[in-house]
Design goal:
Chain lengths: 235, 324
């Protein structure tokens, strides 16, 4: 598989505070890759470095093209959909308007795209006129995924999709992410507190510790390692 | 931070009662009807400018104090175009186009660099500086003496059952309302309008879906300047206002009052607030002997103060609940 996203020696900082120090990782086309780590390890910052929402330096390549100097608007145009922690829902706008915004960088008819989203999330269609802020947390997470689908991304950056959601809802969200990955071939870079869930969804994972990659390997391999198991899986 | 709508039945009921009062009064007295209609015309002018203020406030939480001066500036441009021989409507639409470019350019040159380095307060100060600069530039280019604007339509009085309405007032109401409605349609039903709303409510999330937020702000300033130009053209055509550098100063204050009355974030609220202020001031000066033209401004502010004491979030404002 060809490499879709490559980070080499990426640093990122918030003011004086270094959040990433020399992170190197890759995501292949059509692959799901998880980032694990404790709070403050730099998981969210890694996604933000890719989408251009944090100051970063180093090499970042998308499909072989250097994108280290691109801002979020440009990254969205290059096919990167970032669903941030807290989902980035436009709560004052309607469900339909949120979906329409997902397709902001696209041209041409969106009829098929809406049909596709409503196939994944049938309940969104009946509630298209509803204000997005009135949806439940799980519904907003699904709306955020739907918005990303509208963008037809090559790479989906998914930050803590399970945060604050009931286990059944989390399972449903991960089922849909898997389906998206299989049917559309969308590559996914996933940040998730719940290491067990994310290792089950991802083929490979990176473990971050204080802004650096501490371990990496296939999900099965990492799940076997004692240190990882104890620190992140809790058994 | 959660946002909870607080508009209850009281506001619509109050507005309905006011409408009923105006309709009954107008049926009862011809003078009352005439004063109401010309009040609505003034209100229409305030409404255009108030919506321009709301437009920029929603995007940046800044009151653009230069909005009135920019409106005056574009009105002078219209005067210049008429002086060069353009017909009224050619000049009207050319002015709107120029106003868009001026507003867009001002944001780009004067506001964006300040905003990038500073905060809302620095932008407010930049806007006040802009106000002084623009008013000075008007005097420098066109002089401080009063100029006369041609009216959009020849003067005419319509008589309906003993009540006379001037075509001037009716066209002002019609044009202001049309401008605001067109803008609403643009925001509600176009891709760019939707992107502008998204950029206003959540700039960070808008960037992530590819909206170029800073361009949306420039676009907002452009559209606000167009609305301001409509207000300026209507105000200059009214016999009560004359084209001079300070023409829009009091209009800006009424428009600001209207926007605050409407809740600052609601365009519909600003329009209703503006119409209420226009009508209330006209009726007060017609029926209350001690309200002289010089006293109108303080009276307007007294009313606004009393209203805001009762309902601080404005007619359609939302109470922001900060979760700590």
């Amino acid at each position: 598989m060809a490499v879709l996203l490559a980070l080499r020696d990426v640093d990122a900082r918030y003011g004086q505070v270094a959040a990433l120090r020399g992170v190197t990782l890759t995501v292949d086309e059509g692959e799901i890759v998880a980032i694990l780590g404790a709070n403050g390890a730099g998981k969210t910052t890694t996604l933000r470095a890719v989408s251009g929402t944090v100051r970063r330096s180093g090499t970042i390549e998308l499909a072989g093209r250097s994108v280290a100097r691109k801002g979020p608007e440009a990254m969205a145009r290059l096919g990167v959909a970032h669903v941030p922690e807290g989902r980035g829902t436009f709560s004052e706008l309607t469900v339909w308007e949120n979906l329409r915004l997902g397709a902001h960088v696209r041209r041409g008819s969106l009829k098929d795209d809406f049909a596709r989203v409503f196939e994944y999330f049938p309940w969104l269609e009946e509630r298209r006129a509803q204000q997005a802020g009135t949806l439940s947390g799980g519904e907003q997470q699904m709306l955020a995924l739907g918005r990303a689908v509208m963008q037809r991304p090559r790479l989906l950056l998914l930050d803590e999709p399970s945060l604050g959601l009931a286990p059944l809802v989390v399972a449903e969200i991960f089922r849909i992410v898997g389906e998206l990955n299989e049917r559309e071939g969308t590559a996914v870079l996933l940040v998730e507190q719940n290491a067990r869930t994310s290792l089950a969804a991802a083929s490979r994972a990176y473990v971050l510790e204080v802004g650096q990659v501490a371990f990496s390997g296939s999900s099965d391999e990492l799940a076997e390692r004692d240190t990882i198991r104890k620190s992140y899986l809790g058994y | 931070m959660a946002i909870r709508p607080t508009t209850s039945w009281i506001v619509p009921a109050g507005l309905a009662a006011i409408c009923l009062f105006l309709v009954i009064g107008s049926l009862d007295s011809a003078l009352f009807a005439q004063q109401t209609v010309s009040g609505l015309a003034n209100g229409g002018i305030y409404a255009s400018l108030a919506v321009a203020l709301v437009l920029i406030y929603r995007a940046t939480e800044v009151i653009n104090f230069a909005q009135g001066a920019l409106a005056t500036f574009t009105t002078y441009i219209a005067w210049q175009l008429f002086a060069w021989g353009l017909s009224y409507w050619e000049g009207f639409f050319a002015t709107l186009a120029i106003a868009f470019v001026v507003g867009f350019g001002v944001e780009l040159v004067a506001i964006r660099p300040v905003e990038r380095r500073g905060n809302q307060l620095t932008v407010v100060i930049a806007a006040i500086g802009l106000l002084i600069l623009v008013e000075g530039a008007i005097g420098w280019i066109w002089g401080n003496d009063i100029k006369f604007m041609p009216p959009p339509f020849p003067a005419h009085i319509y008589r309906v059952g003993g009540v006379s309405f001037s075509r001037q007032d009716l066209s002002t109401i019609g044009i202001s309302i049309a401008a605001v409605v067109l803008l609403w349609l643009f925001f509600q039903f176009t891709k760019v309008g939707l992107a502008m709303r998204a950029a206003a409510v959540r700039p960070d999330a808008a960037r992530l879906v590819g909206v170029r937020v800073s361009w949306m702000l420039s676009l907002g300033w452009g559209l606000a300047a167009v609305l301001g130009a409509v207000a300026g053209l209507m105000a200059a055509a009214s016999p009560a206002t004359l084209l001079q550098p300070s023409m829009m100063d009091s209009v800006l204050i009424y428009a600001f009052a209207a926007a605050v009355l409407g809740g600052l974030e609601s365009a519909a609220g600003a329009v209703i607030g503006a119409l209420l202020i226009g009508v209330a001031l006209n009726l007060l000066s017609a029926y209350v002997s001690w309200v002289t033209p010089q006293l109108l401004l303080p009276v307007a502010f007294l009313l606004m103060l009393v209203f805001l004491l009762v309902k601080p979030s404005g007619l359609f404002g939302r109470t922001r609940v900060r979760k700590v």
